[in-house]
Write a sequence for this structure.
């Protein structure tokens, strides 16, 4: 399930959603703008950046990371990316905050001792979605985040509840956006179901929205990427032996076009150093 794209859409629709998760949000939270940025260094990409209004500069920039898989180097990467971005934009900001969203505590990095100052201070906020409370008692936009973690058995009924609730509580435009996001989450959760089955599950007609067609197209593209990536790994291992973890992570971030280019280039590789040089040249 591609939760990163779901959360990206959530933050696009409701930039203030991030601040609903914090105990002490900024007083001008409504004025913040959501963005996604890539730092031009190998593998450096921040899930979300929340920028204060320019007329309040210097202000506080908020970095957001959505983490649904175990990563034992997550804090090293997040703090490096955030510090680098803050350094390069120091004139615009006077402080930075980090918000990391986990489905549960079990996903968090195990070895956190070296980051004890940051994690025990007031600059890093760790959010565990399964500890926010019952999905039906939460603000609707926060409830959408929690819906991504709900067990498959409960997801359909909770999704229908959020659709019904949004039609009562939200303006028409916001309600339509929520319906599309609920639909997105459910289609990702139940990829094996047909369109008719998902429609019946939610009690809506998906053909009236763009989301079903977009997700299926994205799924086909992801399938091509996964197939190409798997082939590349097999070819590289045969040619160079077992790949270091950092090399594997670099390859996993490559687009389909770059994977295809790597498939051609690897025929000339004679050592792991050749692969490293090729990746560093991207």
């Amino acid at each position: 399930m591609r939760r990163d794209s779901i959360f990206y859409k959530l933050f696009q629709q409701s930039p203030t959603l991030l601040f609903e998760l914090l105990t002490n949000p900024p007083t001008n939270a409504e004025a913040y703008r959501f963005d996604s940025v890539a730092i031009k260094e190998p593998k450096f990409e921040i899930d979300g950046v929340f920028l204060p209004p320019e007329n309040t500069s210097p202000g506080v920039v908020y970095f957001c990371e959505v983490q649904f898989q175990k990563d034992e180097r997550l804090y090293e990467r997040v703090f490096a990316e955030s510090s680098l971005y803050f350094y390069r934009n120091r004139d615009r900001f006077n402080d930075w905050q980090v918000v990391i969203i986990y489905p549960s505590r079990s996903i968090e990095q195990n070895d956190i001792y070296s980051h004890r100052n940051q994690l025990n201070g007031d600059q890093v906020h760790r959010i565990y979605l399964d500890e926010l409370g019952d999905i039906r008692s939460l603000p609707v936009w926060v409830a959408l985040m929690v819906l991504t973690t709900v067990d498959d058995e409960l997801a359909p009924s909770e999704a229908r509840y959020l659709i019904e609730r949004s039609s009562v509580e939200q303006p028409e435009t916001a309600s339509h956006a929520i319906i599309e996001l609920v639909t997105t989450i459910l289609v990702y959760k139940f990829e094996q179901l047909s369109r008719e089955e998902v429609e019946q599950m939610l009690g809506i007609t998906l053909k009236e929205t763009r989301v079903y067609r977009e997700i299926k197209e994205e799924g086909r593209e992801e399938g091509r990427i996964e197939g190409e990536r798997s082939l590349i790994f097999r070819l590289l291992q045969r040619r160079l032996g077992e790949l270091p973890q950092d090399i594997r992570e670099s390859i996993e971030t490559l687009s389909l076009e770059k994977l295809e280019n790597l498939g051609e280039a690897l025929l000339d590789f004679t050592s792991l150093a050749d692969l490293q040089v090729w990746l560093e040249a991207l």
Summary: The CA atoms of residues 33 and 51 lie 5 Å apart. The chain has three domains: 1-131, 134-209, 215-280. The domain at 1-131 is CATH 3.40.1350 (Trna Endonuclease; Chain: A, domain 1). The two ends are 28 Å apart (CA to CA).
